[in-house]
Automatic annotation (TrEMBL):
It comes from the Eukaryota. It comes from Aspergillus flavus. This is General substrate transporter. Belongs to the major facilitator superfamily. Sugar transporter (TC 2.A.1.1) family. One of its GO terms (cellular component) is membrane. It is a multi-pass membrane protein. Its main location: membrane.
Length: 507
């Protein structure tokens, strides 16, 4: 299940990785670029910015539109539906005639609708379905597959870039159909999110799904406890009435949490990772690297391999410590990258300062190592854990839309900014990374080993984030779990499931 649903991340990464290579391919340039007086072709900043960035406008819209549909139809079938939209966008791009660069851009916008919706639905489904003890790693596989998608796209681009026909870019673009079909058909074989099923009155189905995910019988104590927490939260939802966008901001600590989620997703983009992924081929050509496609493959491999480290860190060192350390590490890398690029690299004749170019590639790899093991996977995990079930789809859609808004702004304006301030652009990202470390320290709760309902309670009770990793619910204010068990003990007839002191559950 984890592999199939994470194909949503693979599609995101694959599209991100392939566009950087397209911009330098001979046939793509001749068909959709502009011609100079000497007969050579190039992409203006506006044209390249629109081709790259319109995907992000589509993803922003897709993330917002998918939320209410997911609440009504369910997470599972929405994923299949948005895969169809994604395939339609690829068809528009791949059929673009010569000179119609705007059709490529329009196709990327349509494909972006699907990618954006999947970027909301996949982490949501993983968080609502996964057992608490591996939830962080499970959601982080979304980012793992993003990195795998980027790497595979880099490899396919490298294999086709020497072709002089449309095959150079149509082959990697057409391969996208395969990944979308795997996800669209594959998820139909898995159950709906148990939390969504419960809210729709399918209680038995929700219990069965939870039991499958935990690998335990339906009457297991751990299952009974988590199910009670889900039930308690749902009863609170019913008492508050139907959810609206206004209620989203009026509910306990929800405005605060929406702001935290929006800021986290914005800062994930402002780490500067997509500076390398979208324009890496162009960046490293400017740094004097002979075959920038090889450099992109190296970065993609580092990105993919480092994400496995993130799967270990998130469950062993927690979200907060990893994110803070990662932000400070990336801060240092960008300071060196920008300083060498501005002060040591001869930008008029990059091959004459080859050492500077090599140093920049090394620190780019060190940056990717930090990003892929911390901010890449962990932000998606935190966003999936941040909100209670009734508000999760809407709140996550706003946070995800923030990610895609900043994705668009960076993708579109990066060519203009780098033309004006060259590699000093890295100092901007370094400043944002320093702010990111502060945001995590002062605003993000530690979710390691907690259920989604426990994390929600810590936000509502205003637990200090820097104390959250060791927080223990006080006896004077028992946790949800304890309240439910006490209620069942006093009125056993209302609940057919009881728990004895030997940690066995009977029905």
């Amino acid at each position: 299940m984890c592999v199939v649903i994470s194909m949503g991340g693979f599609l995101f990464g694959y599209d991100t990785g392939q566009i950087s290579g397209f911009l330098e391919m001979e046939d793509f340039l001749q068909r959709y670029g502009e011609q100079r007086a000497d007969g050579t072709y190039y992409f203006s900043n506006v044209r390249s910015g629109l081709i790259v960035a319109l995907l992000s406008i589509g993803t922003l819209m897709g993330a917002l539109v998918a939320a209410p549909i997911a609440d009504r139809v369910g997470r599972k079938w929405c994923v299949s539906g948005w895969c169809v939209i994604l395939c339609a966008g690829i068809t528009v791009q791949i059929s673009s005639p010569t000179g119609k660069w705007y059709q490529v851009a329009l196709g990327r916008w349509v494909a972006g609708l699907g990618v954006g919706a999947l970027s909301l639905l996949v982490p949501m489904y993983q968080a609502e379905t996964g057992p608490r003890h591996i939830r962080g790693s499970l959601v982080s596989t979304y980012q793992l597959f993003i990195t795998l998608g980027i790497f595979v796209a880099n490899c396919i681009n490298f294999g086709t870039e020497k072709k002089t026909s449309t095959a150079s870019w149509r082959i990697p673009m057409g391969v996208t159909y395969i990944w979308a079909i795997i996800l669209g058909f594959g998820i139909s074989m898995f159950p709906e999110s148990p939390r969504h099923d419960y809210r729709k009155g399918k209680v038995d189905k929700a219990i069965s799904t939870l039991a499958k995910m935990y690998g335990v019988p339906k009457n297991h104590r751990a299952l009974a406890i988590e199910f009670d927490e889900i039930k308690q939260k749902y009863e609170e939802e019913v008492a508050r009435g139907q959810v609206s966008w206004i209620q989203l901001f009026k509910a306990p600590r929800m405005a605060y949490r929406v702001a935290v989620g929006v800021a986290l997703q914005a800062l994930q983009q402002l780490t500067g990772a997509n500076y390398f992924f979208y324009y890496g081929t162009t960046i490293f050509q400017g740094a004097g690297i002979e075959n920038s496609y090889v450099t992109q493959m190296i970065l993609g491999a580092v990105n993919f391999g480092s994400t496995f480290l993130g799967l270990y860190l998130i469950e062993n060192y927690g979200r907060r410590r990893s994110l803070i350390a990662g932000a400070l590490w990336m801060f240092c890398c960008f300071i060196v990258f920008a300083s060498v690029g501005h002060f040591s690299l001869n930008r008029d004749d990059p091959p004459s300062t080859k050492t500077a170019g090599v140093v920049m590639v090394v620190f780019a790899c060190l940056f990717i190592l930090a990003f892929a093991s911390t901010w890449g996977p962990m932000v998606w995990t935190i966003i999936a854990e941040l909100y209670p079930s009734e508000y999760r789809a809407r709140a996550m859609s706003l946070a995800t839309a923030s990610n895609w808004l900043w994705n668009f702004l960076l993708a579109f304006f990066t060519p203009f900014i780098t033309s004006a301030i060259d590699f000093r652009y890295g100092y901007v990202f370094a400043g944002c990374l320093f702010l990111a470390a502060g945001l995590v320290y002062f605003a993000v709760m530690e979710g390691k080993g907690r259920t989604l309902e426990e994390i929600d309670t810590m936000y509502v009770w205003k637990v200090k984030p820097w104390h959250s990793s060791k927080y223990v619910f006080p006896e004077t204010e028992p946790s949800i779990m304890e309240k439910r068990r006490a209620s069942h003990a006093s009125n056993p007839s209302t609940n057919p499931t009881t728990i004895d002191d030997n940690h066995e559950t009977t029905v």
